[in-house]
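Tip: read the tokens left to right.
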């Protein structure tokens, strides 16, 4: 088995810093209402599947000097999960 792990895009994410969101909401209130409606519908969809409405994530900016260290910690954690019985085990 190869030790090479490719970073894959598993999620579609939109990260908006709160300071930017406030200014965006002031300038584009209708767009914020649309975004809020999309988020509400998505949460309802997840709940209909028996899942939590939302998940919590730790976000690391890839430009930070410590980002690669964080990535390696994540990979090790994933490797340990697989060794303990799979991603769902």
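Filled-in amino acids:
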């Amino acid at each position: 088995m190869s030790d090479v792990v490719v970073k894959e895009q598993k999620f579609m994410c939109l990260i908006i810093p709160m300071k930017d969101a406030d200014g965006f909401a002031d300038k584009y209130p209708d767009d914020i209402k649309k975004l809020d409606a999309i988020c509400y519908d998505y949460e309802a969809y997840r709940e209909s599947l028996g899942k939590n409405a939302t998940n919590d994530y730790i976000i690391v900016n890839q430009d930070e000097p410590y980002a690669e260290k964080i990535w390696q910690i994540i990979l090790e954690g994933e490797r340990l999960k697989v060794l303990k019985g799979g991603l769902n085990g």
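DSSP finds three helices and no strands in the chain. The mean pLDDT is 85.
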